[in-house]
Amino acid sequence: MASSKNFCESTKCLFVVLIAVAAAVATICVVTLTDETLREKKAVNPQPWWQTSIVYQIYPRSFQDSDGDGTGDLEGIKDRLGYVSDLGVGAVWLSPFFVSPMRDFGYDVQNYTDVDPLFGTLDDFKHLMEEAKQKNIKIILDFVPNHTSNESYWFYMSERGDWHYRDYYVWNDGTNCSTGCKDTGGRRPPNNWLSVFGGSAWKWSGIRQKFYYHAFLDSQPDLNLRNQAVQDELKEVLKFWLRQEVDGFRADALKFMFESENVTQNELGLKDSFAWYEDDDHNLTTNFPEIYGILKDWRSVLDDFGKDKFLIAESYGISNEIRNEYYESGAVPFNFALIQYLNDSCNAMCMKTVINDSLSGLKENYWPNFVIGNHDNSRVANRFGPETIDAFNMLLLTLPGTPTTYYGEAIGMRDTMYSYSETKDPAGLQFNETLYLEHTRDPERSPMQWDDSPNAGFTNGTPWLRVNSNYKIINVKRENRTKNSHLDIYKQLAKIRQNSAFTDKYVKFLNISDIDENPSKILSYIRTRPGSDKYLVVINFGHRYANDVDLSEGAGSSKGEVVVNAMSSYKVNTEIDLKHITLSRGQGLVIKVK
Ligand code: NOJ
Ligand code: MG
């Protein structure tokens, strides 16, 4: 055998060395080129659509009825996409429109892969997709993986103990009970776990002779996500809609996906034995780490259909550690800070803290988001007062990250108060006539106000929920014609937000105590990024007048140009002296710093 020394003295060795050098040079060239191509690409198309678009949430029942049955539908939505596109939003999230007995208005899904006749047909959905594509609007669907309707095929089969389906849900024998349990086979629920909508989370099934677990209504049995077959079914649902070319999903109630397997333990320290409270410690029924594996699986399903599919997850009140796990798993967790942690006593300093907490600790690849309202929460006008509508739209659309706007918020719709007998929401009807108002979500679900014709142009029939009587004043048609209406200001904000200064993930707050002797009034921050313009946003969220505020130091200049004006007497396109700014409550400005 030739020694290596001998070999390397031969011409063969020289040849091998030459080839190796050539290969190394080629690799370096390829790496450098790819890197450059990537960098070039990044410069041309730096961010995916979901980082630069506003997401607009539509609650299909309440947006536009096309057939006169009083309930909004897909064709109605399609017909109104012109409005959506005029608003300047790039994506629509549709709350569920799948086949459902509508006990929770679609969040109780009977068949995930078909359209409920109330909302139309699969063909209507296709037409809606076509129209959205034409208008360059992305479509995000609601995905409800935690529970189905008790009228679904899966539950029917499970309740009857079918071998394939019997473990699709969370079944339990409960414990022995001697008195008052005649209707539950002489058994009582295994523990004190509560349903979010009130009462025990366990419901007796006379057919299966067991209890089943339901985090929400008893007509919404929780799926058993520990069963691989259930996980597979859900992935098929995602694929079905991805084949229809949807652009992403908003995943419902994720923190409820797993419960403790040990059902003999009670949750401790609950405030009430009937009503469920977010701030109680639900350590046995929420936030199990098994959630992350599922998210990763969904992410890879989505990625198979394109790298820019969006997955946004609904879990209220999660810690920053849990938030980070969602990100690591390929989902963006909804940031509900503006819904959960702002109230009237939260001054500008407190708002700054709430916003900074949302942004702090986000790793480079974690994209922020903010949301100020949705179909489960009272509207902005009612939470903070109608005088703050533009101010909050300004805040939402100028903060870093993806903003989500709930339908009606751009025109400043108000909650509609319904009497107990008018109430439709099961979350309200679980309670009595005095308590229902604390729980009902009907007020924020009143029909969209399009114009001043009967029923605000929402329907030719009888609307499923009464239209707010203020519709002659608050409606799209009127606000479209009115300068500086809420709608006009919203559109201006959406437009300015397209400037690259607003599309990165950083914000710099001006030091509040420096700019005003009374720190309760003004919230002010800079949005900019290398190579782009510099904008100063200043909003008075306080209850008093802020007079002659000097923002020049924080802005690094004493001059600017007003580009959006909410409610104040400053004029757009005019110069403003940053040393003397005066704003009262609810007034705000976006200023291009000069
Ligand atoms: C969260 C949804 O937003 C809410 O409307 C629904 O009632 C529950 N999840 C249950 O699906
Ligand atoms: Mg209809």
CATH 2nd-level architecture of the largest domain? Alpha-Beta Barrel
Task: Output the CATH class name of the largest domain.
Answer: Alpha Beta
Into how many domains do the coordinates divide? 3
The CATH fourth-level homologous superfamily of the largest domain: Glycosidases
The largest sheet is:
8 strands, parallel
Calculate the mean pLDDT score and round it. Answer: 92
What class would the helix/strand composition place it in?
Answer: alpha/beta
The helix content, as a percent range, equals 25-40%
Tell me the β content: 15-25%
Q: What's the Cα radius of gyration? A: 28 Å
- Tally of alpha and pi helices: 20
Would you give an account of this structure?
The protein has 594 residues and is of the alpha/beta class. The chain folds into three domains: 49-145 and 228-493, Glycosidases (TIM Barrel); 153-213, Oligo-1,6-glucosidase, domain 2 (Alpha-Beta Complex), CATH 3.90.400.10; 506-593, Immunoglobulin-like (Sandwich). 30% of the residues lie in helices and 15% in strands. The protein has 20 helices and 23 strands. The strands form six sheets. An eight-stranded parallel sheet has the order 13-12-11-5-2-1-15-14. A six-stranded antiparallel sheet has the order 16-17-18-23-20-21. The chain has a three-stranded antiparallel sheet with strand order 6-10-9, with no helix packed on it. Helix 14 packs parallel to helix 18 (486-496). The protein is globular and about 75 Å long. The chain starts with a helix and ends with a strand. Mean pLDDT is 92; it is low at 1-9 and 25-43. Magnesium ion (MG) binds at residues 65-67, 69, 71, 73.
